[in-house]
Amino acid sequence: MTKFSERAQGFPWPFAEGETDFRYSVNVEPARVRRTTATGGWGEHLVDLGGSDYTQLMQQRREVIAAHPERRRVLPGMEMACWDLLLYYLRDMAAAYPESMHLGEEGKNFHWRNDLLGTDQAFTFGQEESLPTDPLTFLASEIPDDLVLLTERDGELFFDAGLVTFAASWSVSFNVGMSMTEIHGPVPRMTAEGMTRRAEIFMRQLQPGQAYRRLNWSTSKHRGERLDTSLETYREWESEIPQLVEEEDWGSLQLRNELQHFVRLPMTGTVAFAIRTYILPLAEIREIPEWRDQLASILRELPEDLATYKGFGDFREEIVDYLAQPADSMG
User: Fold this and answer.
1) Which among 4, 25, 31, 166 is most buried, taking Cβ atoms within 10 Å?
2) pTM surpassing 0.85?
3) pLDDT (tens digit per residue) in 167-186
């Protein structure tokens, strides 16, 4: 029996069985439903702790939060939504992982313990001074998901608060205050073909407490274990892909997945948009025949504008050729 890495076992493969082409769609489904894959499975919980690398992932995330305080943006009037988000996620994690996550409640007083990170914090709901930092930053330091809060105005959803450490070529500071249409304007076909509007209508119709999810994918803009490819750090990683292409190191190129959750928060009615990022090198994907063959087919068929937006338009043929060669045939 083939032994897959822990990362591959929990990787949320973004394509349905038998799918050979890709176009943007409003591909939402209920959250907290486990999906099996060729390597294992994913999706049982709202928050995926990521196996044994959770503490390392959270260390990287906390370092970004400390070094880039501008990654947290909260517009006036969003403070209570941040508390709503904090409590919703702490309750969910305590229910999903009772062996390591604990939340005591007594009226407005709470006591949170995260045994994996060593967090032990009592706080009073709505009183920021009872936390070591603001509620959004506190939550972002406990979970690996990037967090965005959306509010409705004049029939549209606007990005009014968020803390984002692992953005894929975008900037939370630039996008805050924008509508969904404005944010997704650069994505080929998505707005023009009506997907942005349909997604917005779906999120506006969510009922309090409801949680749904979708998967989005691209190729990485870097090599190695970097998750932070935000525009704020562009100068740190801008040369990594050109170097990879020059060296023809296709195995180090990575498929980058975003598991996106949409939750209507129960107290404020704010829509929470959470993004959990996963990366898996093509060298590992090539070890998995079902994934290797399917990805090669999808990349080969993808229209040019989507291939460019997904990050591999200039070296599509090289990647497909690389995937087409079984791993054991390469020296």
Assistant:
1) 166
2) yes
3) 887 788 888 888 887 876 66
